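Re-run requested by the PI after the first attempt was lost when the workstation crashed. Everything re-entered from the original request form. Ligand of interest: pyridoxal-5'-phosphate.
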Amino acid sequence: MSSKRGAVAPFLIMEALSEANRFAQQSDKRVLHMSLGQPGSSAPKHVLDVVTDRLQTAPLGYTEAGGMLALRQRVAQHYRDEYGIDVPYERIFITIGSSAAFLMSLLCAFDKEDEIAIALPCYPAYPNIMQSVNITPVFLRGSPEHKFQPTVAALEALPHTPKGLIVASPSNPAGTIMDDGELKVLAQYCDAKHIRIIADEIYHGITYGKRANTILAHTDQAIVVNSFSKYFLLPGWRIGWAVVPPQMTRAFTSLASSMFISPSAVGQYAALAAFDCKGDLDAVVAEYAANRKIVLDGLTAMGITRVAPVEGAFFVYANVSHLTDDSVAFCRKMLYETGVVTVSGMDFDREQGHHYVRFSFSGSTTDVTEAMERLKGWLA
Ligand SMILES: Cc1ncc(COP(=O)(O)O)c(C=O)c1O
């Protein structure tokens, strides 16, 4: 028996992936993944060249707990270049993906039994990690009108004020972006009510027309988690970062050194080099944009039109309630009959996810095109 804290719900996507792997072994159909939560492209060549060099020449020991100075300073530069704001590097901590940044943020800023609000549908690791450290997720029912994002009205409707709020923009699974005005209103409201925001900005850089602003433009009291796993194409290198409020830097440093000693040195060299690859990284975003159009056009042609506006990330979160009341069974049938792997909305929303499917378009344009052709034939 595991502890109560350890008894978190498994990701359904993992089960779907194992099933897809078993199916791939038996079937002569090539399995096409519209399930991936990571870029289909690998690290830019320049990153690999730099890392190859560092493997020969750098000591690759532990680094400072908060990360290499050069990388923290480079992230500070990124805030100046991308958002026109000054964030002192002392508030920036390099972490083992944004996943570790999130865990450390919970530990630094919240106590046992605190409540943190989060809009549904959401990235499932968040409530799971909260549960594992005895923090209570309080779910806000996201609605298509508000692009499944949290609102002041939804917070006001809670029986009592939560201690924290998760903001994810662009979000996973919905891919929606909070307008800067809405972000500002939310930040000001939360500061006034002493609600600590954790803003997940991991999909920044992957947007289609509309820009996602950082919450740090409106408050220095939010914690931001971000990562090199998405726009920067380095998911397996396990490097992310957190920006913490000025009064939290000491606690963050102590926790980081006790829990992890330091993030991977080689991963940090890769991350530093990735900042010099904007051309390659933006070319991948252009491919996502082409894929996005293929998927949205394809779904429309199939009569699947109730989709959240895909403003960022690489997902379409589609309402399929006219086709099924059980999206887990629907996705499984789709796999066996077409070889296309998708994710049921149940991973992101246990209450209403049975009516939703998440389609990822982070794969190659060739695969995305073929997957949509197969689905068109299937649904016809
Ligand atoms: C919304 C969101 N946040 C955080 C993560 C964690 O990513 P990482 O730990 O690789 O930075 C993911 C991964 O898929 C995600 O989709």
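Saved to the shared folder this time. The chain has a mean pLDDT of 96.
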